[in-house]
Amino acid sequence: MKFDELEIHELAVEYEDASAEEVIGWAIENFHPELYIAWSGQAEDMVLLDMAWRQNPEVRVFTVDTGRLHEETYRLMEKVEEKYGLRIEVYFPDSSDVEEMVRKFGINLFYRSVELRHLCCHVRKVRPLVRALGKVSAWVTGLRREQWASRHNIMKIEVDHDHGQIVKVNPLADWTEREVWDYIKKNGVPYNELYERGYKSIGCLPCTRPVAPYDDPRAGRWWWEKNAPKECGMHCSLETGGFEKIADKVLEGIEDGGKRGGSDR
Ligand code: SF4
Q1: Distance in Å, CA 232 to ligand 1 centroid
Q2: Is 64 inside any structural domain?
Q3: So where does [4Fe-4S] cluster get bound (predicted)?
Q4: Which of 66, 116, 223 is the best mutation target for the ligand 1 pocket, counting ligand atoms within 8 Å of the beta carbon and taking the most?
Q5: Per the count of CB atoms within 10 A, which of 18, 23, 134, 208 is most buried?
Q6: Residues known to be catalytic
């Protein structure tokens, strides 16, 4: 690692009051081309991509295509590639993992239990993410502290203990939703059409829905779940009891019954 844990902590303190542009500039200077900008079609990702591209048009952007995304997100991906003249590096889930999971639990397993939803996120999102991050030394995310309780304590620069101790950079940590949209409008940055239809956070099609203007931005994610973290495991490890065991069993192809209660909706 280019910086040890103590140095990263000192940098986090030093950059706490720095602008998002300065934080991205620091990341590019120290890690490009071993730096990935994370992109999933969210407004925050568009701000980061635009800011990074203005500093270095060769900046590398990656996404995880779960296979369950909205058509609008794919359209935005194309628009981004055209406008910025870059190719987003797409990572897909392992097809045999998906086949095994769907054969055992059905195509819409996520509606049946929090555990199975986490399993789907693990197979379709977390595993491809781990593969992607294995190729770089640092990544930049659009996480903001006000998004959810689990994000309140993020630093602008931190060590990513969940992904091989690489560096995780969160330039928008102290931004508000309003600031994100001000940047987009002011700079003519393209954004996902779904925001025009009441979505405030963009994820997979079956697990995301529009919300009321006064709702929490992440209220439309996994809306049927009660008292479960609105996270998929990409930004924090999820401790959900039997989840890891089920994931391992499924992915190792070990039969464990597979038919779980509840019906899809
Ligand atoms: S958000 Fe839904 S469809 Fe997407 S990976 Fe997670 S559970 Fe699966």
Answers
A1: 8
A2: yes
A3: 120-121, 204, 207
A4: 66
A5: 23
A6: 232
Rounded CA-CA distance 210/212 in Å is 7
Percentage of residues in the chain with pLDDT exceeding 70?
A: 85
Q: How confident is the model at residue 260 (pLDDT cuts 50, 70, 90)?
A: very low
What is the value of pTM for the model shown? 0.88
The total number of structural domains in the chain stands at: 1
Supply 109's token pair.
């397993």
CATH number of the domain at 75, please: 3.40.50.620
pLDDT in tens, 98-136: 999 999 999 999 999 989 999 999 999 999 999 999 999
Average pLDDT over residues 160-168: 93
C-alpha of residue 128 to centroid of ligand 1, in Å:
13
7 touches 109 (CB < 8 A): no
| Chain center to CA of 125 | 8
Ligand 1 atom, smallest distance to 118 CA: 7
Query: Residue 121: is it exposed, middle or buried by C-beta count within 10 angstroms (0-12/13-18/19+)?
Result: buried
Candidates 243, 258, 245, 240; CA nearest to 100 is: 258
